[in-house]
Amino acid sequence: MAAKISYDEVEVGTELPAQTFPVTRATLVQYAGASGDFNPIHWNEKFAVEVGLPDVIAHGMFTMAEAIRVVTDWTGDPAAVVEYGVRFTKPVVVPNDDKGAAVEVSAKVAAKLDDRRVRVDITAMSAGQKVLGMSRAVVELA
Amino acid sequence: MALDQSFVGRTYPPTPAYEVGREKIREFAEAIGDANPAYTDTEAAKALGHPDVIAPPTFVFAITFKAAGAVIEDPQLGLDYSRVVHGDQKFAYTRPVRAGDRLSVTSTIEAVKSLAGNDIVDIRGEVHDASGEHVVTAWTKLVSRAPEGA
Predict the structure, then answer these.
(1) Residue B62 to residue A72, Cβ atoms within 8 A
(2) Which helix (H) or strand (E) segment is A89 a member of?
(3) Which residues of B touch A31 (CB under 8 A)?
(4) B53 part of a folded domain
(5) For the structural domain made of A7-140, what CATH number should be given?
(6) What pLDDT tens digit does each residue of chain B (150 aa) get?
């Protein structure tokens, strides 16, 4: 494990560089194939509407995968992440157009723990709504 | 339908080993648009101290969720999977998953609850490598929504 950020350099409130991740229908088809999650709510509009959703929605695990990138891009070594948890609060709705949707992710150091570890709280928004709740990672820094 | 509380603590047999392929890791990293070289370039992974390319943090979910199928499809538990949504997900890592790993998952039902007509099941998946060392634990909360009008 070789995080490029030093524990001594960060404080409670230190903000990680925010990022925005685009999501189109093509993204979801690719993620379905790579993850093996072929639930039709992630690619079939007719099916999604029939089960009460507004439209096709992104895989929760896709959103979870994007949100932690703000942390792994910050540390350089993804192995710095020793714990990561989220609550799926709202779906990311992905319309069938050129733009699709966007997941905006920001994060900040919320606590300094023992053993050169910090707790990072992550915020993920799409279309003005918080899509992940209780989204936290424990990260071991250099 | 309220689920049977006696299932709390039930552990299912370890799954047959899943072999982690480097091209599967690459495919996953590309699908999430993540160009971190630790996922695709062995030399870059080694420079960080890893013996081979590693997988993104959430990669292992595909393996633990498949293992959780034993719980979800257990007819005695009686979960209505057509109404299931993913509530929470958490991982705790001893080390990252890497190419060449042969991973086995042992699933345990940690909690079974009924809240406002929703059935809630918490499943813990312990992931071990071929030498029996712990790699990661995944906690998955599944919520089976109450049928309309119930």
Answers:
(1) no
(2) none
(3) 31-32
(4) no
(5) 3.10.129.10
(6) 578 888 999 999 999 999 999 999 999 999 999 999 999 999 999 999 999 999 999 999 999 999 999 898 888 888 888 788 899 999 999 999 999 999 999 999 999 998 888 999 999 999 999 999 999 999 999 998 877 654
